Amino acid sequence: MRVVPVSEALASVPAPANVTVSPLLERATEPSSPECFTCGSGDGLRPCQDGRRYSSGDPVLYCPGCLPPTSSVRAATGVIAAAMAAGSATAREIAQAEADAGILFDPQRAQDIADAASEQAHAEAHAAIAERGRQLAALAGTRRQLDAVLRLCEGRPATHLVSVAEVMLAAERALTPYGAVPMTLAWTGQVDVEGGAAAVRCTSAYGSRADVIVRGDARTALADLVGATVRAVNAACATDGCGTPDDYDASDPALFGWVRLEVAGVEDVGARWYCTPQCVSDALARAGAELAEADRAAAVDAADGGRPSYVVVPAAGDAVDGSQR
After folding, report:
1. Which one-letter DSSP state was computed for residue 262?
2. CB-CB neighbours of 273 under 10 Å
3. pLDDT (tens digit, 9 = 90+) per residue, 10-52?
4. Among residues 204, 205, 206, 142, which one has the least CA distance to residue 174?
5. Is the pLDDT of residue 54 over 90?
6. Strand arrangement of the beta sheet that strand 185-194 belongs to
7. Residue 184 in 3-state DSSP?
8. pLDDT at residue 280 above 50?
9. How far is the C-alpha of 261 from the C-alpha of 270, rounded, in Å?
10. Predicted confidence (pLDDT) at residue 160 exceeds the cutoff of 60
11. Sign of the alpha-carbon torsion through 146, 149, 153, 159
12. Helical H segments across the chain, by residue range
């Protein structure tokens, strides 16, 4: 193996004369069978390295002898040939000529270009995000105004008139004259149940129709809350025999579903019969109140040292001893 100078090695490679750059899309007539674009040979065909194609999309083919160099190779060849013609003979001079022509790979310059592109992309992304934030803020403001106007109109009949001042106040400041007061509905006495949902028919303060829709388990929860709030636990049940201590025969078909309850600690006649679970619940509530009252009385007696809780009232003219209790 013989080591030769770079200039001699490059001199052995002839520079192509009158190099022309063909268009990417070749307008020549495509042959019916694969062949070299230059000489028509069919041996060892390779696609064009610059990506040239026929109008059909098929690649332009060349044989090994006619395969043109790539555009980068042609550019490097031209630069080297010009440098050699100008008297450059060392590898450094040829490399410097390539660097001056901008065809020599510079890692730092490539990194700088990539960093600049990344910064530009980040800046564009931040600008797009900021613009999207402004758009969302505008949409949120519009939705707030719409909700305020809808609240202003809520519950009013279709023929009701609203002043411009009220609409402007609602739209500009999201305020309504009734914004701090909950909407008041009056029950019409009707409840429609369909498909597992209960529609409680109501009217607004302006006389417009309003429905309260209660679905699923919320119906039972609402019934329990309303019942616990308004039911009088001390009210007598209208069912004959409910709450009686009579010794009924449990096998009597008329007592099907009844409950016999006795609460320990309550001074009563013993177990009693109740017709529904609600009546049992009322009985337990009454017993709980009695037991709580007994506990309070016992606590008062204990705090008083066990002395009888009565006051001796003296007769007229008798002296009163403050220690008498």
Report:
1. -
2. 20
3. 455 555 555 454 445 555 678 888 888 888 888 888 888 777 8
4. 142
5. no
6. 185-194, 197-204, 209-215
7. coil
8. yes
9. 8
10. yes
11. negative
12. 6-11, 71-85, 91-101, 107-153, 164-173, 217-230, 277-303
69-92 per-position pLDDT tens digit:
777 777 777 777 777 777 776 777
Task: Spell out the residues 6+ positions from residue 318 whose beta carbon is closer than 8 angstroms to its own.
Answer: none
* Complete DSSP assignment for 41-89: --SS-EE-TT--EETTSPBPEE-TTT-PPPHHHHHHHHHHHHHHHTT--
Overall size of the chain counted in residues = 325
CB 65 within 8 A of CB 40: no
| Beta-bridge partners for 272 | 261
- Given this model, what pLDDT does residue 2 score? 53
Q: Coil, strand or helix: which one is 180?
A: coil
Is there a contact between 35 and 42 (Cβ–Cβ < 8 Å)? yes
Contacts of 211 (CB under 8 A, 6+ apart): 199, 200, 201, 202
* Percent of the chain's residues with pLDDT above 70: 76
What is the average pLDDT score of the chain? 76
Q: Mapping DSSP to helix (H, G, I), strand (E, B) and coil, where does residue 301 land?
A: helix
Q: From the CB of residue 319, how many other CB atoms can be counted at a distance below 10 Å?
A: 5
- Domain ranges within the chain, ordered by starting residue: 6-105, 106-183, 184-230, 235-307
Place of tokens 């007229």: 316
Tokens 């390779």, residue located:
46
Q: What is the dihedral of CA 280, 281, 282, 285, to 10 degrees?
A: 120
